[in-house]
């Protein structure tokens, strides 16, 4: 992605987050975006992989859907008089291999109510996930692989 476009995205994000759509605030967003990009430029290595904006949007929509569904499931579990929880940790074999992809997957899992990314194995092949209801770890693995991980691969490969 071109640096000017990235700075513009950072500035627009700043305007949206701050809620103040003024010229001085836009300039502050541009300066903050340029400084942020300057700080991380040595850590960014182009590897020839493309970002597909529509697939990223699809990933975002999937996250919003999963967020709503899991929030509802957790609320029902907590509100039920007899909480029949089976918490546990399961190992999820990773298909994603880049640090960015692993981090994104782990964060999406953590941000979804009822699940928490615990650790990544030293060889970066397994992600350990804690689930509030781990009664079907095979189904949970299938859901993550067919959902978040698949969308990440589509969006960033």
TrEMBL record:
<comment type="similarity">
    <text>Belongs to the CPA3 antiporters (TC 2.A.63) subunit E family.</text>
</comment>
<keyword id="KW-0472">Membrane</keyword>
<dbReference type="Pfam" id="PF01899">
    <property type="entry name" value="MNHE"/>
</dbReference>
<dbReference type="InterPro" id="IPR002758">
    <property type="entry name" value="Cation_antiport_E"/>
</dbReference>
<protein>
    <submittedName>
        <fullName>Na+/H+ antiporter subunit E</fullName>
    </submittedName>
</protein>
<keyword id="KW-0812">Transmembrane</keyword>
<keyword id="KW-1133">Transmembrane helix</keyword>
<keyword id="KW-1003">Cell membrane</keyword>
<feature type="transmembrane region" description="Helical">
    <location>
        <begin position="56"/>
        <end position="79"/>
    </location>
</feature>
């Amino acid at each position: 992605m071109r640096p000017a476009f990235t700075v513009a995205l950072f500035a627009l994000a700043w305007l949206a987050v701050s809620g103040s759509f003024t010229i001085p605030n836009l300039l502050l967003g541009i300066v903050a975006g340029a400084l942020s990009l300057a700080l991380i430029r040595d850590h960014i290595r182009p590897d020839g992989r493309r970002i597909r904006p529509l697939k990223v949007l699809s990933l975002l929509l999937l996250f919003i859907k999963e967020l709503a569904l899991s929030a509802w499931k957790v609320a029902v579990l907590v509100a039920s008089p007899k909480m029949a929880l089976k918490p546990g940790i399961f190992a999820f074999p990773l298909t994603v291999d880049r640090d960015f992809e692993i981090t994104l997957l782990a964060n999406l899992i953590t941000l979804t109510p009822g699940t928490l990314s615990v650790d990544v194995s030293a060889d970066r092949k397994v992600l350990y996930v804690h689930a509030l209801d781990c009664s079907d770890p095979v189904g949970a693995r299938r859901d993550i692989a067919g959902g978040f991980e698949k969308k990440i691969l589509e969006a960033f490969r």
